[in-house]
Structures are given as structure tokens and as C-alpha cells.
Specification:
It is built from 3 helices and no strands. With 109 residues, the chain is mainly α. Keywords: Membrane, Transmembrane, Transmembrane helix.
Length: 109
């Protein structure tokens, strides 16, 4: 009668097309894996660079918009000052006008 035990490993035929483990496969194709990781790194750096490019473009647009807004505030503030001085000049006592001139002179320094 035949034994139910499997034959010893040395008696089993070796399958040369049997898949190797990940580490064994990596060691066998070391140059391919190095090239793959290098290309992946370059791709990730390119993607990050592209994101920074668009972020920089957005910041430049924000800077331009803030400069325009600052100029608008500056013009508005000058207009308000001129209007206040013109209104204060109508005061017959001149105290209000003198006080405004002193305040506006302190702003410039």
C-alpha cells in the first residue's frame, strides 16, 4: 500500500517559473527597482513643483489685488482729509481747522 506522506522536498520537482518573493525578486532585478524608485521620486518632485508654481501665481495675484486696494484706501483717505479741511475752513473761529492741520501733520511723520 502507498504511504500517505508527501515526498521529501528534495524529491519534489523544482518549478523554475515559480514566482520569487518580493525581496528575492528585487535583488534579482535590482537595477529595475532602483530606476523605478528614482523615476517615482522625480515624478513626485515634479508634481510638488507644479503645485508650488500655481500657489506662487495665486500669491502674485493676491499681492496685485492688495496693492490696488491699498491705493484705493490711500486715495479715499486723502479725499476724506481734504473734505474735512475744506469743511473746517468754513468755521469762523478757525480752531477746528488748526486742530485738524496738527492731526494731519502728525500722520505724515
Amino acid at each position: 500500500m502507498a504511504s500517505s506522506e508527501p515526498p521529501p522536498p528534495s524529491a519534489q520537482p523544482q518549478n523554475p517559473t515559480k514566482s520569487l518573493g518580493f525581496i528575492a525578486n528585487a535583488m534579482k532585478r535590482k537595477h529595475s527597482f532602483i530606476q523605478f524608485f528614482a523615476m517615482t521620486g522625480i515624478l513626485l518632485l515634479s508634481i510638488r513643483s507644479l503645485g508650488q508654481k500655481y500657489r506662487l501665481h495665486g500669491l502674485q495675484e493676491d499681492t496685485a489685488a492688495l496693492r490696488e486696494e491699498r491705493q484705493g484706501f490711500h486715495h479715499r483717505m486723502n479725499h476724506i482729509k481734504q473734505s474735512l479741511l475744506a469743511e473746517a475752513a468754513l468755521d469762523p473761529s478757525g480752531l477746528f481747522s488748526a486742530r485738524l492741520r496738527r492731526l494731519f501733520a502728525q500722520d505724515k511723520s
